[in-house]
Amino acid sequence: MTNPLAKRADADLAPKTGADAAKETSSGFIALSDPDMTLADLDAVDAVLRSPRLSSGSMVEAFEDAFAVYLGRKYAVSVPSGTFGLVLALEVLGIWPGDEVIASSFSYRKTAHAIAVLGARPVFADIDYWSGTLAPAKVEAKITKHTKAIVAGNTNGHPAPWSELREIATRHGVALVEDSVEAIGSTYKGGLVGTFGDCAVFDFPSRWRSPAAKAAWW
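User: That's the sequence. What structure does it adopt?
Assistant: Structure tokens below.
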């Protein structure tokens, strides 16, 4: 039996020619990303849609196991979003109301939102001009007796200076969380991002390297 999803994909993925190509070019529209969906991807979606469990099923469990192995972590847990993953990560690390969490001044608003949801106070530190990631010296200058964690991101896939941040976090006895929602597959000094902090959060929105309908991991 012909897979209708695969048949549709063949049409959607076919190179645009003639009037269709001219129309897309003349519109001036530049896509943020162009996800490469293979027939194997569509078959996997089809298998889930035909199964009795559309969420938290065997496919998710297999992906969790594979992702943990990929990072060399003991666990990988699927959650609804990167924001939710960050909230859980901070909660597990013991962040309470009144605590301070240092975060980048150049980041998505949901980072600060996740900190505030727990009643903690986001404290913004400045970034390195060239990489867009947290500047270690600026982070250390913001540490007080109330600081309990540092949330550092790999901005646009560019790894943060994890060696320096890890040293600062260890010396001051605070937790280090990797906000890797934009950086799956990026490396720093030969190691994958997501392996340097006490825990890491990944996201799979449509515009990144491994898109999903909506999913995240921590």
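The chain has two domains: 4-49, 58-217.
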